[in-house]
Amino acid sequence: MDARMIVVANRLPVRRVEDAWRTSPGGLVSSLTPILRERDGRWIGWTGAPDDPAGPFEHEGIEQYPIALDEADIEGYYLGFSNATIWPLYHDAIRAPEFHRTWWRTYRDVNRRFAAAAAAVADPGDFVWVQDYHLQLVPGFLRETAPGLKIGFYLHIPFPPVEIYSRMPWRRQVLDGILGSDLVGFQTELAVRNFCRAAALIAGARVEGDEIHHGGGVTRVLRAPISIDVEDFESRASSPETGERVRKLRADLHEPARVVLGVDRLDYTKGIDVRLRAFEALLEQHPERADDTVFVQVAVPSREALGDYEEIRRSVEEIVGRINGAHGRPHRMPVHYLYGGLDRDDLVTYYRAADVMCITPLRDGMNLVAKEYVVSRPDRDGVLVLSEFAGAANEFGEALLVNPYDIDGMATILHRAITLPPDEQRRRMGPLQDRVRSEDVHFWAARFLDAMP
Fold it and tell me: What does the buried/exposed string (b/e) look like for 182-214 if buried means 16 or more CB atoms within 10 Å of the residue's CB?
């Protein structure tokens, strides 16, 4: 596909740092920006600040088109409908989604604004790629106003079973919005099936193979699991500077025999509390592990204005305190809890220092931390403990898979992980690394673009 490409996402790929624009970190940005430069591309998104007056500008060869959101927009569109309605609903309603008409109206209006901005800068034949759950109505609005465009949509989070999805009062409108696309991509085959079933049962569409026929139009569906910038992580992980930071980190942890690591946004879908309870159960069954094993949990602040996020933070901190109170020793705490973000160099240092990576979401579209850990192990050692409800589990059969709802089962798997022989570690880690290397984030983007009808 040689047409000009326009990305429409909730956020721009840049952020303000001391009154200057800097490229934001992340696999999506690193994979799409080279393509946009090659194709005279544009990126439409919010700056992340309320009432930001920024106008169009160019950054590193890409035209940026900011969408201004005021406090009411942020409350209704972002914190409200996107993250208190869609986010919990699509994650199997782990928390009860809230359905408010005012949020829906704001979500619809903001989506229309994003679509209008895309239509204003696009020419017939251009390819508009809409990203994620914040903007599900944009493809439909674009199809109405600019029918000559090629439109793709990619959902980075799960799409739920129709029995759960059907609870939403605006279920048909959201489906019609997504079905304005020529191509819709999902992380897993399960999400593809769930979406097709919802389109058939709710929107009256006819599904034939990977095509959904609806209202005179055809939308193709595709499983295209997202990945990471492998070269960047491997380069950082193998640097001498990272090796020195790893030695210092393990010294700061008082040289434990084993380090277990969790790295997550502090979100109720991530299962941080249940993995800590499983570690607590492990220490109750094997109290000697409190002397030679340390669990490091990094919790990155997320959507702190929402009550559910305050609740999960309190729960996690209570569990950490309880474990350390019951099993701690002078100068030896079994759990080290870090509330805050890490830059990529520090993140890779933690990955290198960890003998076991513990990833236990209750539901996750993919979970790129799993892939980051795997390629940050230059000696092909380490153990990945992974929830079977993460999208990555479909690709990572060599990981130690767990049911995060089974505390005792997780404790058993954790103990197996910290005692796994080195030869079995390498036997499992090698294929995982090879798979991530062969299908990195650039492979993902190319696969989606090549599938466009």
Answer: bbbbbbbebbbbbbbbbbeebbebebeeeebeb
List the structure tokens of 201.
Answer: 């049962």
Residues with Cβ within 8 Å of residue 251, at least 6 apart in sequence: none
Q: Hey, which CATH number is domain 5-224, 3.40.50.2000, 3.40.50.720, 3.40.50.300, 3.30.9.10?
A: 3.40.50.2000
Nearby residues of 363 by Cβ (< 8 Å), 6 or more positions away? 91, 92, 94, 158, 269, 389, 390
Predicted TM-score of the model (pTM): 0.95
Instruction: Say if CB 97 and CB 78 are below 8 A apart.
Output: no
Among this protein's residues, is 52 annotated catalytic? no
- Give the chain's end-to-end CA distance (angstroms, integer): 10
Report whether 260 contacts 290 (CB < 8 A). no
What one-character DSSP code corresponds to residue 45? Answer: E
> Does the active-site annotation cover 364?
yes
Q: Which amino acid is it at 247?
A: R
Find all residues with CB under 8 Å of 377, minimum gap 6, and list them: 237, 351, 352, 429, 433
Q: Model confidence over 31-89: pLDDT tens digits?
A: 788 888 888 899 999 999 999 988 999 998 899 999 999 999 999 999 999 999 999 99
**β-pairing, 42-46 with 62-67?**
parallel
User: Using CA atoms, how far apart are residues 329 and 335, in angstroms rounded to an integer?
Assistant: 11
3-state helix, strand, coil in the chain (%, to 5): 50, 20, 30
- Spatial distance between the Cα atoms of 430 and 391, rounded to a whole number of angstroms: 20
364, 415, 440, 442: which is the annotated catalytic residue?
A: 364
> What's the CA angle centered on 222, arms 216 and 224, to 5 degrees?
155
pLDDT in tens, 102-123: 999 999 999 999 999 999 999 9
Q: Give residue-wise pLDDT tens across range 416-438.
A: 999 999 999 999 999 999 999 99
CB contact at 8 A, 221 and 193: no
Q: Which of 156, 213, 286, 336 is catalytic?
A: 156
E strands present in 224-292:
258-265
Which two three-digit tokens encode residue 18?
A: 């001391």
CA gap 437, 3 in Å, rounded: 28
Any idea where the domains of the chain sit in the sequence? 5-224, 230-438
| 230-438 fold | Rossmann fold (3.40.50)
CA-CA distance, 106 to 289, in Å (whole number)? 52
- pLDDT tens figures, 355-381: 999 999 999 999 999 999 999 999 999
Q: Which two tokens stand for residue 144?
A: 């109405």
Q: Is 18 left (phi over 0), alpha (psi -120 to 50) or beta?
A: left
